[in-house]
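Long-time lurker. I teach an intro course on protein structure, and each term I like to show students one example going from raw sequence to a predicted 3D structure in token notation. This year I'd like something fresh instead of my usual example. Would anyone be willing to generate the tokens for the chain below so I can use it in lecture? Attribution to the forum is fine with me.
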Amino acid sequence: MQEGKINVQTENIFPIIKKFLYSDHEIFLRELVSNAVDATQKLKTLASMGKVSDELGDLTIQVIADKEAKTITIRDRGIGMTADEIDKYINQIAFSGAEEFVNKFKNKSEAEQNAIIGHFGLGFYSSFMVSDKVEIFSKTYKKGGATKAVRWECDGSPNYTIEETDKSERGTDIVLHISDEEKDFLEESKILELLNKYSKFLPVPIQFGKEKNQEKVEGEKDKDGNDVYKEVETDRIINNSDPIWKKAPADLSDEEYKNFYRELYPMNFEEPLFHIHLNVDYPFNLTGVLYFPKLKKNLEVQKDKIQLYSNQVFVTDSVEGIVPEFLTLLHGVIDSPDIPLNVSRSYLQSDRNVKKISNHITKKVADKLEEIFKNNREDLEAKWDDIKVFIEYGMISDEKFSEKAMKFALLKNTDGKHYTFEEYNAQVKEAQKDKDNKVVYLYSTDKDEQYSYIQAAKDRGYDVLEMDGVLDNHFINTLEQKLTDVQFKRVDADTIDKLIDKDEKLPSKLDEKQQEELKPVIEKNINKEKFTVVFESLSETESPIIITQSEFMRRMKDMEKLGGGGMMGMGGFPETFNLVVNSNHPLVTEVLEEKEEEVQQAKVKQMYDLALLSQSLLKGKELADFIKRSFSLIK
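-- Reply from a regular --
Happy to contribute to a lecture. Here you go:
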């Protein structure tokens, strides 16, 4: 037996590892299983080169929990190690990474410590975060002298022992003697959770525990002639060792992509709209599959739906800052060996390779959408309501994506027709130019609430866009910056003649003196703090009173709602409206000529309430009074 002391200058290194990596202590299983996979993959490579004389046999990696003995064993049948190799790789190389980590921690503030955690691949020594003692039993694949099986033991101090042992099979067993404070890791459910999280797509089969399945009994039928099944217990294989992102897209069907989506998100019952298969080998290696989920009008951002892998080892599902913000709305998997496995998210965000990968994914997503637009525009239009939030988010937040999206992003009008930006401008530019030669894009945020305003616009030959999405208020601002000589105006922001001002005014039936006479009569029945009375000479077919809110004021209120709370910490913008009186409507003239004040006031109140009702502003007691008054008028 050989005893020794690991060459270490830092005292009490193992307690420090335990203390400062406590929040990440579950990664021990990821590290040890990944090491077992590496040992197995190396054996396969050597065998392919003709350097392994034995049959490889079953290479399944086993994870074994023994609650009674308080141990977890990770067993592989990979290349194994000799005594010299254990001394080199465990006592020297692996430990130097752990020691460097601890030295970096010395004399650092808590914030600096948090930034350093994860920058070092602690690998094997992460096992001491949960163990009082660790044993290694290993037998090399090599033949000849000095190749006997070896046992290594360390109790969490720099002292270790190495001795010969009995082990018939090639490979390595890592035996963790779990400490009392970490005994939760002995629970089958906990180990299963961690294996599913970190090892779900490792390239070598991982077995843990047993599962019950139904097996057909050959040659047996029940009395009704049906097949007979029996319950059997089989080894539970944790992982899919050949996930679709490692395969060529030409070899996969749509159904296989959908099945993989269900495997990733078993609780998501909605099918994805379409997918993008990433497969790049220069200037970096990158594979993966990204799915477009149905987003609809709700911006329910779930930023844990893209899983980041390095050589099929799970790294993180917290990818914001690693991929552009708008791409976090996608679901799926990204895998790249160029992404370091054991680093913090802040390090990933600043890594040059990661930034290149991020830019490439943005380009691939834009290319895919453009391809769908060119080859199957009808399909894109049919799915537009489900994906427009994603595209708008991208155009608002990512300039490179926005440049490409100008070719395939769509506008939809209130009749359900779709246009590219170029097509829509050609459609409306002649009819909807104002006196400053700007093209006015009218839009609605609620077709039902704004129906009368939309209809008034259509009666004049104008078109109205449907902009009812959660991001449309911001998107309109973005488009006004990108499109030349275009301004957006909500269809109820003013009267139609004011929205598209052509210097063509109808003569008014009420002169200025009559308007001044009528104004206090109307103001007597309204909230003057909220409504400003203005007179306009509109068509007789228009409503007698119309309520509008200026485009600027409405946008500020919408942004306030989206941002939550008051603007600039001052309680927000006051809700103010224009009360437009149609000076050409017969009812308005009738009110002016009415001699009985009570009748005059009742007519004004009724017209005012009808205008409020058209904008969903009539509520509570005022709505009840209006209904009661309406019945009285019917009588």
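Some talking points for your students: DSSP finds 20 helices and 22 strands in the chain. The radius of gyration is 36 Å.
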